[in-house]
């Protein structure tokens, strides 16, 4: 394979052209860079170790509303959180990512400096989640503020689209289907389509959201979006777990999968964060067999795309009750070509002449890759990021000999401990029930001081 900043020039048995540098291919597997179509850099890197063992029983065990929403990175920590996320993604073979976050001063500049191909999606919404005790989710609406945030998001995505690197684009992102009015969703989608931009919305991600939409409209998330004229090949739905066929829902029908497949709407599947709360999409194999385009995202920590892929395969086989529900090749396709299709790209997620030179080199000599029969299975089922040696975007190394090239990864990691302590103090202050951290995030084993 021959590549340059212009793209992949040749794939075949014997390149006859000139090469300025030769990378020895013995003991190396070259693969297309992974395409992560759903992640959050804002505060997730400092949430590690806090809420993995808690959840709200009255909300199907989900920790999102009562616990996770309490943690937010302050302004001083935003750059460190983003740097850690970008670095961890690259170290696991990601070359393209879609980041949904609130705009911070360094958001655009760090994405550009990283060398990654970046889709930046500034989220906006009109309602905030509010928990009544530990038993009821309520919504605090402020339409004027939501419209103001929408205006700010439009300005930001235009700035992102104009970035001279050519690797950055903006995405229109009404944050969650239940926190935005139908009018705002339609206005945002209309603007995106007038500008030829991608759209992403969290939808069908929790049972609490599913039940709220049924209460308001009598519809599932895909049915509501179909009625609004929003479904389409430029739309990526975040998570999309609780469709009408899911065993936890009331409907027991299968109309939603057909709605997604026939409209060309894509799904961003992020299994790890939901599996931690005991829930999973049913099943990835079933979505693919129904004709739904599915890409993979990491959502939150550990920002390891290969670990996410392994979890996706395991969860699919468990929920599908069969080892045959999905195979490794189909999963890899979702993490590359599926993600590329969701972003409207035919030039990433594959190693062919004319594609972008976005690729990762896997060290087959790493102990976790030995013995080698099927290197892709070894990578996903066993080695994960430990075997990723080099990563290239537009022909330039962004990871070299397992080290991030353009970002101060080690320095950012050092900042996380103090950032987490500050966030935990704010969580104690902001918790409606006034609970201390020892009650909000009890340690997994007793500590003796």
Describe this structure in words.
- This protein has 14 helices and 17 strands.
- The protein has helices spanning 75-91, 107-114, 143-161, 182-194, 207-217, 221-227, 255-263, 271-275, 284-289, 305-320, 328-342, 375-383, 409-430, 437-440; strands at 2-4, 7-10, 28-32, 34-39, 94-101, 117-124, 127-132, 136-141, 168-174, 198-203, 235-239, 266-269, 293-296, 359-363, 388-393, 396-400, 403-404.
- The longest helix is centred in the last third of the chain and has 22 residues, at 409-430.
- Helix 1 runs parallel beside helix 2 and helix 1 (75-91) crosses helix 13 (409-430).
- The strands form 4 sheets. An 8-stranded parallel sheet has the order 4-5-6-9-10-11-12-13.
- The protein is an alpha/beta fold and 449 residues long.
Summarize this entry quickly.
By secondary structure, the protein is of the alpha/beta class. The chain is 36% helix and 20% strand.
List the helices and strands and how they pair.
Elements: E1 2-4, E2 7-10, E3 28-32, E4 34-39, H1 75-91, E5 94-101, H2 107-114, E6 117-124, E7 127-132, E8 136-141, H3 143-161, E9 168-174, H4 182-194, E10 198-203, H5 207-217, H6 221-227, E11 235-239, H7 255-263, E12 266-269, H8 271-275, H9 284-289, E13 293-296, H10 305-320, H11 328-342, E14 359-363, H12 375-383, E15 388-393, E16 396-400, E17 403-404, H13 409-430, H14 437-440
Parallel strand pairs: 4-5, 5-6, 6-9, 9-10, 10-11, 11-12, 12-13
Antiparallel strand pairs: 1-2, 3-14, 7-8, 14-15, 15-16, 16-17
Helix pairs in contact: 1-2, 1-13, 10-11
